[in-house]
Design goal:
The chain has 409 residues and is of the alpha+beta class. It folds into two domains: 12-77 and 192-255 and 354-403, 3-Layer(bba) Sandwich (FAD/NAD(P)-binding domain); 132-186 and 258-351, D-Amino Acid Oxidase, Chain A, domain 2 (2-Layer Sandwich). It contains eight helices and 18 strands. The protein has helices at residues 46-55, 90-97, 99-123, 144-156, 166-173, 191-204, 316-334, 378-393, and strands at residues 12-13, 36-42, 62-66, 81-82, 130-137, 162-165, 179-188, 208-211, 215-220, 225-229, 234-242, 258-266, 280-284, 291-294, 300-307, 343-351, 358-361, 368-372. The protein is globular and about 65 Å long.
């Protein structure tokens, strides 16, 4: 393999609001304690944290390795709209992969949000985790009839979905659109605090966190996976799991996965916003689509203006223009000016044709696993990935593993 195993990228541009919040640092070391580990997890973001936590049983030796400090990759750039709804609508996904499989995906996504909320509560992680409803608005991609069809499909699948017509939408939410779908089973959080909290609990369960060390090469054989590091170490592992965000494995480049650019803003705190908004995540059926939510401190967090480009987010000129465009769209939608944002940042993120992540053993690389192609549901899919990877390594394959393989869809 090349001297660099993953496609190295600057995962974000400018400073996200979460970088200035407390409790996001995690203790780590620069040198591995062992030569061989039962599992090595590459990536100390939310996916790596959840995967390691799911595998930590007090008996396995587990190392989490990242070329950055923990938490400082793409997880920091998330808006943490933890939705059960995926980027591809249920009725459209049914055409892509079949009705039964699509319904299973959507139900699994809703279940994953609930299990994540339960995990955060059980571990006592302070990360502003809050249950939220979702308001999905008509846009230039789907109108009122399409949303009515989508709401019906979700109800058949056993998911809560209330169709809201134009009159009710205006009366209850003050929004002038032709229709919306109101649903539950979503959440929001501070993604940096969430990631740091899970990593700390993984450490308590015996996981070793190694930072500023890059995996530069790997080799698989009938036995262990051999990893070379930028610090000159050769490490052995029974299993390796790549949770490297959008720095995808080079052997998988171009195989159903691509990187696009997105932008996000955080307003000043204590805005005067519609009272209902504190309980909702809002997004629209447009391309590109606007998405937004609030924090407990009264900030508006929003994103969108996506471009089909792997590096447009690096442009400083676009950073300013996109931040202004997002703020203006919010003003038009909610009927209130939010002013100049306190924070504007950008990032690359991975997508697939079906909107589904790719989770599992990498074709041709025995005992090497990867989690890729997160779309707009990174944290939700990270929870699913942790369950699928843990089940596989435990020798008890997950019932839904075939929905998220590298050949699925």
């Amino acid at each position: 393999m090349d001297s660099q195993v993953t496609e190295e990228r600057d995962l974000r541009e400018a400073r996200p609001v979460w970088a200035d919040t407390p409790r996001i640092s995690v203790a780590s070391r620069k040198t591995p304690r062992l030569r061989r580990y039962d599992v090595i997890v590459v990536g100390a973001g939310i996916s790596g944290a959840l995967v390691a936590h799911g595998l930590a049983d007090g008996r396995r030796s587990i190392a989490i390795i990242d070329r950055r400090q923990p938490v400082r990759g793409s997880s920091m750039a998330s808006t943490a709209m933890i939705q059960h709804e995926i980027d591809v609508s249920l009725h459209e996904l049914s055409r892509e992969i079949g009705k039964t499989r699509a319904e299973r995906v959507w139900r699994r996504s809703a279940d994953a949000v609930e299990r994540l909320k339960t995990l955060v509560a059980e571990l006592g992680i302070s990360c502003q985790m809050e249950a939220k409803q979702t308001l999905y608005l008509t846009g230039d991609e789907y109108g009122a009839r399409a949303l009515a069809r989508e709401a019906s499909a979700r109800k058949v699948a056993g998911l809560m979905a209330d169709y809201v017509d134009a009159e009710q939408l205006k009366r209850d939410f003050g929004i002038d659109r032709t229709a919306a779908i109101r649903s539950d089973a979503s959440a929001s959080a501070n993604p940096a605090q969430l990631t740091a909290g899970v990593l700390r609990h993984a450490r308590k369960r015996g996981c070793e966190i190694i930072s500023e060390v890059e995996i530069t090469d790997l080799h698989t054989s009938s036995g262990d996976v051999v990893l070379a590091t930028s610090t000159g170490h050769l490490l052995l592992a029974g299993h390796v799991v790549f949770c490297t965000g959008y720095e995808f494995l080079k052997p998988l480049a171009g195989k159903g996965h691509k990187v696009v650019s997105t932008w996000a803003i955080a307003s000043r705190p204590h805005l005067e916003l519609p009272e209902w908004l504190s309980g909702y995540l809002v997004w629209e059926a447009s391309d590109p689509y606007l998405y937004l939510r609030t924090t407990r401190g009264g900030r508006l967090i929003a994103g969108g203006e996506d471009e089909e480009s792997p590096d447009a987010y690096l442009s400083q000129a676009k950073l300013k223009a996109k931040g202004k465009a997002i703020a203006e769209k919010i003003g038009d939608l909610l009927g209130c000016a939010i002013g100049t944002p306190d924070y504007v940042w950008s990032a690359g993120f991975g997508t697939t044709r079906t909107g589904l992540p790719m989770i599992g053993e990498v074709p041709g690389l025995k005992n090497v696993h990867a989690v890729m192609g997160y779309g707009g549901n990174g944290i939700t899919f990270s929870m699913i990935a942790s369950e699928i990877i843990a089940a596989f390594i435990n020798g008890k394959p997950d019932r839904d593993v075939e929905l998220f393989t590298f050949t699925a869809g």
